[in-house]
Write a structure and sequence with these properties.
The chain is of the alpha/beta class and 355 residues long. Helices cover 32% and strands 23% of the residues. It is built from ten helices and 15 strands.
Length: 355
């Protein structure tokens, strides 16, 4: 059986990004540890003032314990209030929707299923818009698989925090002329974010509503794949103007496009679809940029867009450099290669549609 010493050692690996990167033990947040035949129970103490990273810390603590325990061991992490409610202070920056007041267009980048390159399109679309001279931000709302830090070469960066305790505002990471924010900045590489729906929704809203975006022409939100409660929470509580849907030409991907479109068209959401982006539309060898090989099928995205009554915003070729650039943290949209030009054309089409 895992003893208390091992449990505390695991919890010491969980750091609070807004508290000088100190861990849970240093901050004296671990108030109780119970280890028995029925599993592990840990109690974390939080002040009554709302900690914007409370859900993240609870999830990170649980993930840290799961890593050291035998498979199947029940793990429970709960929170308690450890101090009386202080007198409410005025913050220099209010929360809620105040941080979005300077944003002209908030656009969700969504997909009906995973594996279609949605995050690749979102990151490169942001860079292409910035390259055209627009002020751009991107919120990585894919809380289960945040990839923006890797794709932008910003892994290991800790966003600065400003404002009074209990009303902290995060400063986005700026690179390539884009303001980036991702839950991935608050987790170690490879750390599984084991969150249930309400926890994920809370983290998502923090990644958007508690960020000093400033003046932006476009705020793109890289949404998780699928059509679950996170998406509903996002579009109902944040003033998303509309969505861009990403797909690939395969039949299995196109079959899920309709689900994604119908979610935004549902009466309880009722957001416009700005268009469809067909990613990996064809393969183009780097040595022969004029050649096109339709290895996943030809025309499926165009046909689906016509059936659903939406526009094709762009078709992105499958080029090895897109994958390499994503792995190396240098988005393809920053280049003048065929893939970079395709993302620039996509950005122009979207900007013109919203002008």
């Amino acid at each position: 059986m895992t003893d208390k010493k091992e449990i505390l050692a695991a919890l010491s690996e969980v750091r609070h990004p807004a508290k000088g990167d100190k861990n849970l033990i240093e901050l004296e947040m671990v108030k109780a540890v119970e280890a028995g035949p029925n599993g592990i129970k840990v109690t974390l103490g939080f002040p009554r003032r709302r900690d914007p990273l409370a859900e993240y810390l609870i999830g990170a603590a649980r993930a840290a314990l799961i890593r050291i325990l035998p498979q199947g061991t029940p793990v429970q992490v709960e929170s308690i209030v450890v101090d009386p409610a202080p007198e409410k202070k005025k913050s220099t920056k209010d929360l809620n929707l105040d941080q979005l007041e300077g944003v002209r267009h908030i656009i969700g980048v969504a997909s009906g299923k995973g594996g279609v390159g949605k995050s690749t399109v979102a990151v490169n679309l942001a860079c292409a818009l910035a390259r055209m001279g627009y002020k751009v931000g991107l919120a990585d709302a894919d809380v289960y698989g945040p990839s923006v830090p890797v794709m932008t070469g910003t892994e290991g960066v800790s966003p600065a925090v400003e404002g009074e305790e209990g009303a902290e505002i995060f400063a986005p990471v700026e690179k390539f002329g884009v303001k980036w924010m991702s839950v991935g900045y608050f987790a170690d590489r490879g750390q599984a974010l084991i969150w249930r729906g309400p926890m994920a929704c809370s983290a998502l809203k923090q990644m958007i509503l508690q960020v000093d975006w400033g003046e932006l022409d476009f705020l793109l939100i890289d949404m998780p794949p699928g059509t679950g409660d996170i998406h509903i929470s996002l579009v109902q509580e944040i003033p998303v103007e509309g969505a861009v849907i990403v797909t690939t030409p395969q039949t299995v991907a196109l079959a899920d496009v309709e689900k994604g479109v119908n979610m935004f068209r549902n009466k309880s959401i009722d957001k416009p679809i700005f268009g469809l982006v067909e990613n990996m539309a064809w393969f183009t060898p780097a040595e022969h940029p004029q050649e096109k090989y339709y290895i996943f099928g030809n025309g499926g995205g165009t046909e689906m867009a016509a059936q659903l009554g939406i526009d094709i915003l762009g078709q992105i070729p499958l080029v090895q450099s897109i994958r390499e650039g994503g792995d190396e943290g240098i988005p393809a949209a920053l280049t003048d290669r065929p893939d970079g030009k395709a993302f620039l054309e996509l950005a122009r089409t979207l900007a013109d549609k919203l002008a």
